Amino acid sequence: MIKKNTFEYFEKNGFMKINLDKKYLKDYLNLKHTIKKSFSKNFKNNSFENFHSNVSFDQINNLRMRIIVKINKVKKINEKIYLSAKKILNQMVGPDIIVQKNINLAIQMPNDSSRALFHKDTPLSSHHEVVMWVPLVNCKKTMCMKMIPKKFHDKADNLLIQTNEKIHEKFAEKYGVTIPINFGEALIFNTDNFHYIPINKTSKTRWSLNVRFKNLFTPYGERNLLDYYQIIDSSPISNLLKN
Ligand SMILES: [Fe+2]
């Protein structure tokens, strides 16, 4: 059983770092192996961290889309990701839980300026939803997203009217939190949380998966259950009633 104060930081700020269940780390290692084997031409002999050595900014998005297709063909990949954080997720959003059908992958190569702008995932996502962000490599400094704590959200909401990226960057620098996340760990954040993706100024490529979870019975955003999610776990009372 997870201790109650495990969620103190999350309840205050809207995000937290977690350790993935070691039992399921092999699934992530297998996934990395599958990616490397399927895209060996692009990897050459490089590691995930050095993927940029042979890939240009022009190629990366197309390649990323092809890797996403491959990842989503891995049998029960979203169930495997769920199991690696099940204990936390079940306490955070409840035992009747749904998961995004398709896993996303972000690849942020050093100095590549193309990335999502400062944003939050609501109202497209439900307010009752969390994103699980799982790096496939160790991430620190500008490989990490800047997370804006809940107490600054009103300020951030006003800022969204501005489209100037420099202003967003300045805001994220001032109020954002950088949490180093290693392979084997994950960041969980509420979809209401603003996040800023800096230009990766390190010498390593950042690889990260992201997938969304919510309780089956909480209000939805603009995405509906059947199109976007699948039920991944259910409570004994729900099981009783559906039989
Ligand atoms: Fe986002």
List keywords for this structure.
243 residues, Jelly Rolls, seven-stranded antiparallel β-sheet, alpha+beta, binds fe (ii) ion, 10 helices
What does this structure look like?
With 243 residues, the chain is of the alpha+beta class. The protein has one domain: Jelly Rolls. It contains ten helices and ten strands. The strands form two sheets. Strands 1, 2, 3, 4, 7, 9 and 10 form a seven-stranded antiparallel β-sheet that branches. The mean pLDDT is 95. Bound molecules: fe (ii) ion. Fe (ii) ion binds next to loops.
Question: Short description, anyone?
Answer:
The protein has 243 residues and is an alpha+beta fold. Helices cover 35% and strands 20% of the residues.
CATH A-level architecture: Sandwich
Which hetero compounds are present in the coordinates?
fe (ii) ion
Sheet with the most strands?
7 strands, antiparallel
When the domains are counted, the total is 1
Low-confidence stretches: none
Task: Explain the layout of strands and helices.
Layout (H helix, E strand, L loop, with lengths): L7 H6 L1 E5 L5 H14 L1 H4 L13 H17 L3 H7 L2 H8 L3 E4 L3 E5 L20 E7 L10 E2 L5 H7 L5 H11 L1 E2 L6 E6 L4 E2 L9 E10 L9 H4 E5 L2 H7 L1
Antiparallel strand pairs: 1-7, 2-9, 2-10, 3-9, 4-7, 4-9, 5-6, 5-8
Fe (ii) ion binds next to loops.
